[in-house]
Design a protein that fits this description.
mainly alpha, Rhopdopsin 7-helix transmembrane proteins, three-stranded antiparallel β-sheet, globular, disordered N terminus
Length: about 375
Amino acid sequence: MNLNQYEGQDESAAISSNATNGSDHGTDTLGKWQEPQWLIIVYFTLLASGGIINLLHTLALIRSRRNGILSLILQISLVDMGSCYVAVNEILTLNQRTWYFSTDFCPFFKGMEVLVNTLIVYLLICFNFHVISLWNLHEMEIKKNNKNPLTSCNSSRDDSNECLVAKQDNTNRLVTIDYRKRKDDISIVFPTIFIWIVSLSLSIPNFTLSSTLKLKENCTLCAVIDIYYGQVLQYSLLIFKIVLPVLLLFLTLIVLTVKLSQTSKSDIENILTKKMCEIRKLLIFGITLTTLYFLTSFQRQFFHFIHIISHSFDKNNINNFKMPPLYNNYLNKSNITYLAMLHYSGSTLRGLLCLLILPKFPYLVKSKIFVCCKIKE
């Protein structure tokens, strides 16, 4: 695309093709901290702590036998570690008011930003639906005809899987014990494959089309330098990265809350249905994770949404390249920076919530990371 058409505007542009390091921005922009330096340092320290916590989670889960829940937690921890890289790049760029790093890092940053932020919201949705499915599975088992699951069988079927012990009324008083394993988990293979395909499909254009654009006053943009594809990409991200996942996440939050309210204490106290106690904790964990996402990320998603729907891509000006998350027409740079810090703090908080709420997870981490602590999972 010929960028000479932007010359003569308030912000004339030219491709920064020869830049190879941070010196692209000029000495007048480097070293100028727009936000309090101590705040950025403290935030990066907390972010690094969250990265270490998620790393420990990942190592523990890799060494463990994983069901659907733990497989999703493993993927969430991996994505949260990747978000630390994106957070550092984004916050330093926002703080310096210009692209802070080498030109070569721009496509990788733009692609990773879309990838990790798309993955995390869809993985949370998948986690919530998985917990809901587990609740339905176990609720169906313990409430079949309100019978004792040890001895209740379907009278019309001798080979029914609805009982563990079958009795035959005859003179020899035979007792047949069914050792067939009951289904206690649900596969997440296909949902996670679909999530990764969607996330990669949205991020690949950013990996391939992003570049730097140098403006006057030594300010450099990192953006998709193509008006047509940039417009198509922004609307695709609006639908599949913001509108659809936020609606699905809100829907799962409502369903989780309803399921939690339907889990009675009598079911939990019943020794035959003690599995429901663990599922109840998973419901609480899912509600907490979802609420945390809305508290830390919804504001950022909302302003991204109104920026795109109110922006006109018809005009040939440099504002077509000033897109979220680095720019927003309704926020100043300081507010964008603080929303970014709030958004990426979710990676640390999710790691802490796994240790505080997720059933048996602290014991798993201790037994797999600290080998001297042999704790039964």
